[in-house]
Amino acid sequence: MKRIIFKAWLLNAIVTGASGFSVSTNGNSANGKKLASASASASAQQPAAISAFAKVNGIRSSIIATKSHLSSTTEDLVFTDSSSNTLTPVTSFDDGVSPFEITTPIYYVNDKPHIGHAYTSTACDVIARFMRLSGREVFFLSGTDEHGQKVEQSAAKKGVDPQDFVDDVSQSFRDLLKLMNISNDEFIRTTSEQHKESVKHLWRTLVDKGFIYKGTYSGWYSVRDECFYNESELVDGNAPTGAEVEWVAKEESYFFKLSAFEDQLLEMYENSPDMIAPPSRRNEVSSFVRGGLRDLSVSRTSFKWGVPVPDDEEHVMYVWIDALANYMSALGYPNDDPEGNFAKFWPASVHVVGKDILRFHAVYWPAFLMAAGLPLPKRVYAHGWWTKDGEKISKSLGNVIDPVDLVATYGVDPTRFFLMSEVPFGNDGDFSNSSMIYKCNANLANEYGNLAHRLCTLVYKNCDQAIPIPGALTAEDEELLAKAKAARGNAAKQVANQAISQYANVMINLVKDANKYIDVMAPWALKKTDTERMSTVLYVLMETLRYASILYQPIIPDSANKILDQIMVPKDERTFAHLETSPLTPGKAMDGPPKIIFSRFEVPGEVEAANKKAQEKPAKKKKQQQSQVPIEIDIARLDIRVGVITKAWEHEEADKLFCEEIDIGEESPRQIASGLREHYKVEDLVGQRVLVLTNLKSRKLVGFPSHGMVLCASNDDRTEFVEPPADAAVGERIIVEGFEGDAATENQVGKKKMMDKIFPDLKTNDDGVASYKGIPLMTSAGACKAQTGLAGADVA
Questions:
Q1: SS3 helix, strand, coil % of the chain, rounded to 5?
Q2: Which one of 21, 250, 387, 439 has the fewest beta carbons within 10 angstroms of its own beta carbon?
């Protein structure tokens, strides 16, 4: 239920025609008691401000007010919108309202934290903060995995007791979370007594249900991975991860009947395809299970640092049955109190893990839970690995990235921003200092930070050091405010599907729109010609900045809140619910001159030279043009977006063409002509979800202006649409793993004949999935497929 609360001094009014809204007063509201201390001149302009505010917040009702009304009450008006009961978008794995548990994996304490730990923790933190700001009740869990042979060996090498060793290393992970401003609700340690008792209870449950038995084990074991491997999985004598393996010969062990769950697991993957993400990871897991499951050794006798097996303390539990249980032990399992955390938050909403430990979370963990008769987690999301300057990160290469050093060099929020925005979440990413400098200078210092600083400076100097008072809004004003209002929903769709980089792009694009608006409107020039219009423009920008900063809080919490401080947003009005209910108060005094939030980073010499070259005017001579760095032509140069056909009709003068209007998330639908009349009926088109190639030069097709291309799969017999998943957000850009970068301009696509070079590698695979060089075209909701699964077809 959406509650829209307006300041009473601003909206003490007669409201008529408010379709879908009920109205009540809230006289005891703390907000209602905050009367503006505006100047007399501000009061005189408040009736005009009311009209502007009504438009800002999308209220279609007619509002009538007088100056006497404006100062006579301290009550708020509360509008209740019954159009939605969810707090975040509903997905196939989340209802949008229930308590939300999100977890990092518990980190293994054999060494100090690295960039991968910072990456996973920050991703979970962004999602947790977004859910809290949306009104969801959240339990965000992190912790350390402190048992196992590797820990015992590492402690022995240092000549210390294992408990002292893990105490020290575990603290370094807690220090990392604090350094990265991670808002976890609980930090679980597997050496805690609470956790040990939970694990023992789970073990006894599995024994009682007949799924654990004693036998002997012989096979390959990786100490580093704490994992058993089949002979067929070894690569050049090592584990698939590159870790060394050792032969374990006839060691007595307890076994879990994993083989009994092969069919149930495959059925789960089939019936709940979104449980494991991204889809490419689900395919890996399904393939592993289809290869056949063997019963799993779940205890060891060759070392002692672990949770003793109940009633047989010669054995300690295999580290993964111990470690995975943390997700429940932190909630109090097996506490069955209906008011307790276990009843409230289990099953977990999402486990976020690195791709190297997906098997344990997507095969072993659900099998353990099935055997124990416990609910399964709703989703397991496996992200990729980081490389550095194109090379694998390893101690032997000396290129390990220490997050402490990153923060010392760049600061907390720039580090968080880069990690969350640089690569699609789920893909592998490459770190370089030059990339980080480019990204943070461009999106934070030049765009967001510069917008905030020059806007607040203009307001402070030209609006009596107070929030400007708006007049009537123009179409351009309403357009920017509509984009700001839409940003919440667009961002929420991405976060609901763990598409964090796409969420960051929503924010980046909103800031870019605001910068375009300020450049076009030029409020510094309006000061000399139309001060009322100047105030309106500045107010619209301040409101857009308020939206952007509230929505940016999950990614860059400290910086976003510093900007909210500067534009006088009260600390208790910074949740997403306040986006529409708590606009800036015209005439409210600012605390002081604005401060710079994001400074530019010093650019290394080679990067500085590249920047200088980019800023030079285009060379006119052919020789100079030939010296320019060539653009690598691949699928990343094409800007392909999710769209939906909203209108379609037959071209009057071309018997093969449809004319279509397609919504791709822009302010107005695109007009596109498609030669599909031989394959579809016009009545079948409206509502059809499609992929649209957007960065093509407009051209007229038999007199009809067409602004893009709809992608279809074709063979000699048929042509059909390539469809995005039903949950994919309209306007979302299609990505292909391993091919990242900015889209080319329309001119570049045409002049370099990019489609001729890219389209031959665009085909559907055996499952009908549209692929580039064999790699699927992906949205945050999954892969894009030919409408009926047409296999081996060309895509164009």
A1: 40, 20, 35
A2: 250
Q: What is the DSSP letter of 466?
A: B
Residue 430 confidence (pLDDT) above 90: no
117 in helix, strand or coil?
Answer: helix
CA 216 vs CA 123, 185, 255, 298: distances in Å: 41, 41, 9, 11
Distance of alpha carbon 201 from alpha carbon 325, whole angstroms:
10
CA 25, CA 23: separation in Å to the nearest integer?
A: 7
Q: Long-range contacts for 431-437 (Cβ within 8 Å, ≥24 apart)?
A: 431/115, 431/386, 431/387, 431/388, 431/389, 431/401, 432/388, 432/389, 433/604, 434/604, 434/606, 434/607, 436/410, 437/601, 437/603, 437/604, 437/607
Distance in angstroms (rounded) separating the CA atoms of residues 1 and 527: 42
pLDDT at 363: 97
Length of the chain counted residue by residue: 796
Residue type, 95: D
Mean residue pLDDT across the chain:
84
- Do β-strands 107-108 and 138-145 pair in parallel, antiparallel, or remain unpaired? parallel
User: pLDDT for 370-382, tens place per residue?
Assistant: 999 999 999 999 9
Q: Exposed e or buried b for every residue in 728-755, given b needs 16+ CB within 10 A?
A: bbbbbbbbbbebbeebbeeeebeeeebb
pLDDT at 63 over 50: no
- Return the percentage of the chain with pLDDT > 70, whole number: 84
Closest CA to 427 of 381, 393, 391, 389: 381
What are the two backbone dihedrals, phi and then psi, of residue 672, each rounded to the nearest 5 degrees?
Answer: -140, 140
Instruction: Show the tokens assigned to 598.
Output: 């994001």
In which residue are the tokens 């934070």 written? 444
Mean pLDDT across the stretch 585-594? 94
Find all residues with CB under 8 Å of 484, minimum gap 6, and list them.
Answer: 510, 514, 543, 544, 547, 548
Q: What is the 3-state secondary structure (H, E, C) of 322-374?
A: HHHCHHHHCCCCCCCCCCCHHHHHCCCCEEEEEHHHHHHHHHHHHHHHHHHCC
Question: For 659-702, what is each residue's pLDDT tens digit?
Answer: 999 989 876 789 999 999 999 998 889 889 999 999 998 888 88
Query: Per residue, what are the HEC states of 256-310?
Result: ECHHHHHHHHHHHHHHCHHHEECHHHHHHHHHHHHCCCCCEECEECCCCCCCEEC
Band of pLDDT at residue 233, cut at 50, 70 and 90: confident
181: left (phi over 0), alpha (psi -120 to 50) or beta: left
Going by pLDDT thresholds of 50, 70 and 90, the confidence category of residue 36 is very low
d(CA 362, CA 522): 55
Tens digit of pLDDT for each residue in 310-368? Answer: 999 999 998 789 999 999 999 999 998 999 999 999 999 999 999 999 999 999 999 99
Comparing C-alpha atoms, which of 709, 346, 326, 729 is closest to residue 503?
Answer: 729
- Whether pLDDT at 41 is above 50: no
What's the CA gap between 529 and 98, in Å, rounded? 53
C-alpha distances out from residue 377 to 260, 272, 678, Å? 20, 11, 46
- C-alpha 607: how far from its chain's center? 29
C-alpha to C-alpha distance for 191 and 133, rounded to whole angstroms: 33
Contact 180, 415 (CB under 8 A): yes
Burial of 23 (0-12, 13-18, 19+ CB in 10 A): exposed
Per-residue tokens: 261: 């769950």
Q: Higher confidence at residue 12 or residue 645? A: 645
pLDDT (0 to 100) of residue 623? 39
Overall average pLDDT of the 235-262 stretch: 84
